[in-house]
Amino acid sequence: MTSAKSVKVLGIGGSLREGSQSERALRIALAAAEERGVVTELIPGPELVLPFYDTAVPERDERARKLIEGVRQADGLIVVSPGYHGGLSGLVKNALDYIEDLREDTRPYLDGRAVGLAAVAYGWQAAVTTLEQLRTITHALRGWSTPLGGSINSAETKFDEGGGASDEKSVRTLRLIGEQVAEHALLRAR
């Protein structure tokens, strides 16, 4: 039986702004996953500044290699994107494109991994459509999106530095997403 400490959940997302609302949302979900007994790692927005993904260019810079290896080693993922103009950020989309480098792995793409998803946008329409796009991308990459996804309207909900938010329902949703990813990863590790 695999030790729970060897089970890893990787968090990807946020924006270029350190401590962004979407990064704070991601940290809440990761904290809940960690409380379930998994090891977590965060690759926040500033670390996702990568060259545009290009299959014709086999060389990868240090940040891209870290991302690819992090996904490769992960038993589950949590992805949180800001919503920009009704869709996920280019930063997060480009990072997800790099998962193509796992196509030849024994466990290709996101195969067998639970993926928790949330979108944080200024308005409900952008939050909902961004979450929908994240789910579509996850399915295309053979990932299992958790039953619960988070659409968070940052016009109404503000996340604080201490891991809380002005709306307790948003915190509960993010925590449940993290718990679902951790539980799935732990079950698959048995």
From TrEMBL:
It comes from the Bacteria. InterPro entries: Flavoprotein-like_sf (IPR029039), FMN_Rdtase-like_dom (IPR005025), NAD(P)H-dep_reductase (IPR050712). GO terms for molecular function: FMN binding; oxidoreductase activity. Transmembrane segments: none annotated. One of its GO terms (cellular component) is cytosol. Residues 7-147 form the NADPH-dependent FMN reductase-like domain. PANTHER family: CHROMATE REDUCTASE, NAD(P)H-DEPENDENT FMN REDUCTASE LOT6. This is NAD(P)H-dependent oxidoreductase. The lineage of its organism: Bacteria, Bacillati, Actinomycetota, Actinomycetes, Pseudonocardiales.
